[in-house]
Write a structure and sequence with these properties.
This protein is of the alpha/beta class. The protein folds into two domains: about 35-145 and about 265-290, 3-Layer(aba) Sandwich (Rossmann fold); about 150-265 and about 300-325, Response regulator (Rossmann fold, 3-Layer(aba) Sandwich), CATH 3.40.50.2300. The chain contains 13 helices and twelve strands. It is elongated and about 65 Å long. The model is unreliable at about 1-30 (pLDDT under 50).
Length: about 325
């Protein structure tokens, strides 16, 4: 009798934990937090819109299957390092860095978190971020232009669009644009024109630099690539219009807001393609398996309305090659 009582109690003791386990198993598990994509970019502009649209097309919805942490540093370069550290502290699954300032800050802060970048000025191999374009070998991949010789092409375009131009002002960013500027100098020398350098390092210096172009008697303004200059494009184009100064730029958005001519890659398209790389990283692909790409297509954009306002006639030799003519 005592033995039967003991077995019954033992049976009950075993049954209770089993029932509890079954009950726990039946309860739904808490879903894991979605991956986190950090974005470090200068401002909320068409490039940011192209990136987020690319993510949307890849099936990502912010707050549901992806947490997007976007940081816009504006013209404050000191904020770039702070935001880079913040995105790393948030344990981002992947970080997208748009432009050299952002990439340099992120790469300085982490060598483990995958980084997808878009950069028009740096050579990723020379900079030490990648072993090669085909096999980056580290935590960085993305889309890099790094064709400083385009500066010489802008000189050619300026001479064709403004045949009488013998003095060209060149606006460039001393923090990141030395290689590009030197290539532009070579192009000016080959074309036999005088170059008036307008070096800037901060947004506050752009107004004084533009005034200098006028005081030096520049016949046209060549605008080299820089995220700082890109953010101030409206200021630059408005000034050039007021001073009747033709502008030739690598940024195709310049003629779309009133500049004269541009020749360069579609930067918004590069950002949209970067969204696909982010998707592939989130799907498990390592940056080392994603080759660094360079744009293979360049666009020539001409604003005929601006040309007319400046009293210029764009030669058919340029118009026939244009990808976009704004009338």
């Amino acid at each position: 009798m005592h033995r039967r009582h003991f077995i019954a109690l033992l049976g009950g003791a075993i049954a209770l934990p089993c029932a509890a386990a079954a009950q726990q198993k039946a309860m739904p598990e808490r879903s894991a937090e979605p991956p986190r994509a950090g974005i470090l970019i200068g401002s909320r502009n068409e490039n940011f819109d192209a990136l987020t649209e690319g993510l949307r097309q890849a099936g990502y919805i912010d707050g549901q299957n992806l947490l997007i942490e976007a940081r816009f540093y504006g013209t404050s370069l000191r904020a770039v390092d702070e935001f880079a550290s913040e995105l790393i502290a948030l344990k981002s699954t992947v970080i997208f860095a748009s432009n050299p300032y952002a990439i340099r800050a992120v790469m300085k802060a982490t060598n483990t978190i995958p980084v997808v970048g878009v950069d028009l000025e740096d050579d990723p191999v020379t900079s030490g971020w990648a072993q090669s374009l085909a096999r980056p070998g580290g935590n960085l991949t993305g889309f890099f232009l790094d064709i400083p010789e385009l500066g010489g092409k802008l000189i050619e375009l300026a001479r064709e669009a403004v045949p009488t131009a013998s003095n060209l002002a060149v606006l460039w960013d001393t923090a990141i644009g030395a290689t590009q500027f030197h290539a532009t100098e070579l192009g000016a020398r080959a074309a036999g024109v005088t170059l008036s350098p307008l070096p800037v390092r901060r947004a506050e210096e752009i107004s004084e630099a533009l005034d200098s172009a006028v005081s030096q008697g520049a016949h046209a303004l060549v605008v080299l690539s820089s995220p700082l200059i890109f953010q101030q494009r409206s200021q630059i184009v408005d000034f050039a219009r007021q001073k009747r100064l033709p502008t030739v730029s690598l940024f195709t958005s310049f003629p779309r807001i009133g500049g004269l001519v541009a020749y360069g890659p579609n930067v918004a398209s590069m950002h949209m393609r970067a969204a696909n790389y982010i998707h592939r990283v989130l799907s498990g692909t390592k940056p080392n398996d994603l080759p660094i790409e360079r744009p293979s297509r360049f666009e020539l954009v001409i604003n005929l309305k601006t040309a007319e306002a400046l009293g210029l006639t764009i030669p058919p030799s340029i118009l026939d090659l244009a990808d976009e003519v704004i009338e």
